[in-house]
């Protein structure tokens, strides 16, 4: 981004979110995969009003924009991002519980949110306790576990559109489906969410959450940076071949490495960063896993994880991987 354009942009952003704007920020430490280059501009708003004001500034600007939570479901490119990252993070993590209604800002850390809700005796979202992202990212992805999604309990979502105008969507308008919602098409920023829950027994809920955490610790790699499940589970494939982790394992690819990225020896649908892996290492593995499983089973696995290119193109990571390696990734390159 040329300096003269950047300084105009920063002046505008500083006016809308004073003290919340930084430049040339290393994104790798902020991402769960610990992969990513530098962002030209980074803004971390403190309120919905500030976030909407930032969007209003950006609506007149040519620079690409990326809304980020905890980057626990996104592969940031090692070449960086020449645009503006708006992070809805811990500065926006207030919450309140009134009766069976829970309200929270979108930057709240999901495990903290789930613990507070469960410990107050409200039942229904224990399944999200181990998901290391923000509430905003969770709602956008309709994330969850045990075959559930957070959308089941969302009653409304407050968003900003690309012009900085606030609007509210009820659950029906969010069109939640498996790991998807209409919010993904709207290019809206999720600012706040309201959930409706049932009353339950706080100690039973607490025990259930502890059990979920115990089971996740036993099944999923925890020590090495990763982004959770790389590929989505497809019901047709699940019925005949099994989930992606099994298909990858059956193809003999568990433990395969490219550079410092590895298909986790613990769970083959996770790609772990052994230290210093690049986004290309991960994309190469994605291309290879997808290709080999397709050849063996006829099913093309799509990614849950999205890739952010340096110029702001956000898309499922398998699309970026196959564009980069259109022909079969060669086995000979594998360490
Ligand atoms: C170890 C591990 C385990 C995981 N387990 C699960 C699991 O069991 N179930 C599951 O569903 N997911 C799981 N995930 C994936 C991930 O944690 C969830 O999808 C999470 O909710 C994403 O939130 P985030 O804040 O990290 O979003 P990010 O990764 O930062 O962003 C994901 C997408 O959401 C968008 N986004 C983020 N915040 C906002 C916002 N406020 N407004 C608009 N758009 C926004 C981004 O632009 C991007 O497109 C796991 C991840 C890890 C690392």
Please describe what this structure looks like.
With about 325 residues, the chain is α+β, with helices and mostly antiparallel strands. It has three domains: about 5-85, Uridine Diphospho-n-acetylenolpyruvylglucosamine Reductase, domain 2; about 90-215, Uridine Diphospho-n-acetylenolpyruvylglucosamine Reductase, domain 3; about 235-335, Uridine Diphospho-n-acetylenolpyruvylglucosamine Reductase, domain 1 (Alpha-Beta Complex). The chain has helices spanning about 5-15, 50-60, 110-120, 135-140, 170-175, 185, 200-220, 235-240, 245-250, 280-295, 315-325; strands at about 20-25, 40-45, 65-70, 75, 80-85, 95-100, 100-105, 120-125, 155-160, 165-170, 190-195, 200, 255-260, 260-265, 270-275, 305-310, 315. A five-stranded antiparallel sheet has the order 6-7-11-9-10. The chain has a four-stranded mixed sheet with strand order 1-2-5-3, covered by helices on one side. Strand 16 and strand 17 (about 315) form a beta hairpin. The longest helix has 19 residues, at about 280-295. The chain starts with a helix and ends in an 11-residue tail after the last helix. Residues about 330-335 have low confidence and may be disordered. Flavin-adenine dinucleotide binds near residues 71, 140, 189 and 228. Flavin-adenine dinucleotide binds next to strand 3, helix 4 and strand 11.
């Amino acid at each position: 981004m040329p300096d003269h354009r950047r300084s105009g942009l920063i002046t505008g952003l500083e006016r809308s979110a004073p003290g919340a704007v930084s430049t040339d920020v290393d994104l790798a430490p902020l991402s769960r995969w610990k992969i990513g280059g530098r962002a030209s501009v980074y803004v971390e708003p403190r309120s919905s009003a500030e976030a909407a004001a930032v969007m209003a500034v950006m609506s007149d600007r040519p620079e690409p924009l990326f809304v980020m939570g905890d980057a626990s479901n996104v592969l940031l490119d090692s070449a960086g991002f020449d645009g503006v990252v708006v992070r809805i993070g811990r500065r926006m993590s207030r919450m309140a519980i009134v009766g069976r209604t829970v309200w929270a800002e979108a930057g709240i850390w999901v495990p903290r949110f789930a613990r507070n809700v469960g410990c107050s005796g409200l039942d229904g979202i224990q399944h999200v306790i181990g998901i290391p992202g923000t509430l905003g990212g969770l709602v956008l992805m309709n994330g969850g576990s045990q075959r559930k999604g957070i959308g089941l309990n969302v009653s409304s979502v407050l968003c900003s559109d690309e012009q900085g105008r606030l609007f509210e969507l009820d659950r029906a308008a969010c069109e939640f489906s498996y790991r998807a919602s209409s919010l993904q098409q709207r290019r809206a920023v999720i600012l706040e969410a309201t959930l409706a829950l049932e009353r339950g027994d706080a100690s039973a809920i607490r025990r259930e959450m502890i059990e979920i955490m115990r089971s996740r610790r036993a099944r999923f790699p925890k020590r090495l940076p990763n982004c959770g499940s790389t590929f989505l589970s497809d019901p047709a494939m699940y019925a005949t071949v099994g989930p992606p982790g099994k298909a990858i394992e059956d193809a003999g690819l568990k433990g395969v490495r490219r550079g410092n990225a590895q298909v986790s020896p613990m769970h083959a649908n996770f790609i772990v960063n052994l230290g210093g892996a690049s986004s290309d290492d991960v994309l190469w593995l994605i291309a290879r896993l997808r290709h080999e499983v397709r050849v063996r089973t006829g099913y093309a696995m799509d990614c849950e994880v999205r890739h952010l290119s340096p110029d702001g193109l956000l898309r499922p990571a398998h699309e970026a991987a196959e564009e980069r390696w259109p022909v079969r990734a060669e086995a000979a390159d594998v360490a």
